[in-house]
Each structure stands twice: as structure tokens, then as C-alpha cells.
Amino acid sequence: MNSVVPEPNPSAPTPFSEAEAQRVRSIWGTLGLPGLIDVHTHFMPRSVMDKVWAYFDSAGPLVGREWPITYRADEDVRVAALQAFGIRAYSSLVYPHKPNMAEWLNGWAADFAAHHPDCLHTATFYPEEPATAYVSKAIAAGTRVFKCHIQVGAFSPLDPLLDGVWSQIADAQVPVIIHCGSGPAPGTYTGPEPIARLLRRFPSLPLIIAHMGTPEYEQFLGLAERFENVRLDTTMSFTDFSEADAPYPPELRPRLADLGPKILFGSDFPNIPYAYTHALDAIVRLDLGDDWVRGVLYRNAAGLFGVH
User: Fold this and answer.
1) Which residue, among 169, 54, 72, 155, has the nearest Cα to 123 in the 3D structure?
2) CB proximity list for 57: less than 8 A, separation 6 or greater
3) Domain residue spans in the chain?
4) What are the φ and ψ backbone dihedral angles of 292, each rounded to 5 degrees?
5) Radius of gyration, alpha carbons of the chain
6) Quick check: helix, strand or coil at residue 149?
7) Which of 8, 155, 237, 303 has its CA at 20 to 30 Å from residue 183's CA atom?
8) pLDDT, tens digit, 9 for 90 and up, residues 109-129
9) Which residues contact 250 (CB under 8 A, 6 or more apart)?
10) Can you tell me the mean pLDDT for 142-154?
């Protein structure tokens, strides 16, 4: 990973201001961190990203509410924004919604990571016959994180076509960021029970539960407490936007504090309906202590992904 945070180019068009970038840098700088690690960011082929944005614009059933895209911009501008914010490592979370799509996305994501050294090489999968083979290929090619979207993909994590995928991932210990909670809208296969059954079959699976498992917070917190390699990412959680519909129970905060080393910062950039600074402020205002915040914003992910 690059150790130097590039300064933003003042002549480039940006969806952010230099004042915002300075505010982000001041948050991690005040904590004595070298930057941030954001495990939950989206970079996709242009045709796919355009369709994702159009879906958010239409407030489709998986979104269910008005959801403006704050950082809607060309790919190079979005990369520059993360650099200006001081993001030391991020992901390009791609995910298929139909068969015969995942391997193409993996090829695109591998190329993106090759051209952007701060991006964790990302891959994905779908329950289909070739999945075991292309996941094996992705692991061999150096994939550092997988994305699995149960809600959008509308598939069960227990589908037998994924047996070879899960066993390889468990053996290789490549983390999987998995959207399996029932927020913002429930799916046929979302919720904690299928994941609990999956973990009983593959107890060493390195899962990162996206969005803290919104809205089934307590159940997914329990899985992270029970299984050694299960973690949670903070994506959109604790923000005003999420608290309006699915507030995080205050009584769970002591358990959140105890589970600190297993919680990773994620933002959902660029598809967030508020400023990046608000995602960081939402973590800080939990008032769980500076050391807890340091772990969440940088140290926990740095240890998991070997970021120096």
C-alpha cells in the first residue's frame, strides 16, 4: 500500500470540497492515525454503476426511500476523493444479480486493483456451476476480499452450488463482506438464521457482516461473539439516515465496546446520501473511547489485511 497520501488536484472537478477533505483528515490525524481504511466502497464497470445509480434514483423496492448519491462522479474523480480523504486502503465491491456475471466482474475488479494500488483486490461469486472454478482462480490471482450480496442476488448462502466456494474461502481465509441483514428491505434469504446455519457447517469462515447486520443487530453481534472469524462493518450504521429507520439499540453498546477488535469501518462510498464526514462523526459520537475508534477506523482492518 502507498504510504504517502496524495494531495488533491485543485483543478480537477470533484464532488467534494477541500474543506471536507481537510475535515476528514483532521479526524484521523487528531487520533494519531496514518489515515483510514474503508473496507466497504464500490467501484464497478461504468455500465453496472450507472444501473445501480438509476436504481437508487428510482427508490426501487430494495431501497424503499429517497436516496441521493452524494459522490456521483467519474471513476477517476471518486478515486481522487478517497485519496484526498486519506484512505490508505479501500475495496471495489462488485456483486452479480444474475448468473454468468460474476466472473466478468472479477476480471474487471482484478484490472482495477492492478491500476489502483490502494484498492484491495476484490472478487465476488454467485450460485452457479462455474463458481467453484472461478473462485479458485480468483484466490490464486491474489484476491484479498470477496463480496457477497444475498439481498440483491436473491440467493441462499446455503445453496449447494456454493459448497465448493465456501470450503475454499474457509481454507484460504480470504474475508467475505456479506450483505445478509434484512435492511434496507428484507429479501427471501436475508436474516441471521441462514448465516448461523452456514457457520455451523463452515465455522472458520472469515465473514464480515455488512451494515452491522441491519436491522438484526443483536443476532449478528451474537454470531461475531460466537465465531472467531466473524466480524462486522459499520457501513451506514449509526448515521442519522440509518438511525431514522433502524436505530442501533443503546443497550448493545457495551457488547459493541467489548467486540471492538472485530469491527471495521465501512462507508458505502460513493452511494451514500450524506457527506463522508458524517459517517466518521457517527462512529466518534458513540463515545466508546478514542482507542476503540482507532481500531475501527484503521487498526483492525490494517491487521486483517496486512496494511502497513
Assistant:
1) 169
2) 67, 69
3) 18-305
4) -60, -45
5) 18
6) strand
7) 303
8) 999 999 999 999 999 999 999
9) none
10) 97
Domain 18-305 has CATH 3.20.20.140: yes
38/144 Cα distance (integer angstroms): 14
Q: Which amino acid is at 132?
A: T
14 vs 184, higher pLDDT: 184
- Give the per-residue pLDDT at 15: 72
For 105-125, letters b (16+ CB in 10 Å) and e give bbbbbbebbeebebbbbbbbb
Task: Pull the grid cell for residue 241.
Answer: 439516515
Handedness of CA 180, 158, 207, 259 (dihedral sign): positive
Q: In the structure, what pLDDT confidence band is assigned to residue 255 with cuts at 50, 70 and 90?
A: very high
d(CA 33, CA 247): 29
The pLDDT value given to residue 44: 98
3-class secondary structure per residue, 2-47:
CCCCCCCCCCCCCCCCHHHHHHHHHHHHHCCCCCEEECCECCCCHH
As a whole number, the mean pLDDT across the chain is 94
Pairing relationship of beta strands 36-38 and 145-149 according to DSSP bridges: unpaired
In this structure, what is the dihedral angle of CA atoms 56, 57, 63, 68, given to the nearest 10 degrees? 80
CA–CA separation, 231 and 175 (whole Å):
9
Q: How far apart are CA 237 and CA 246, in angstroms?
A: 9
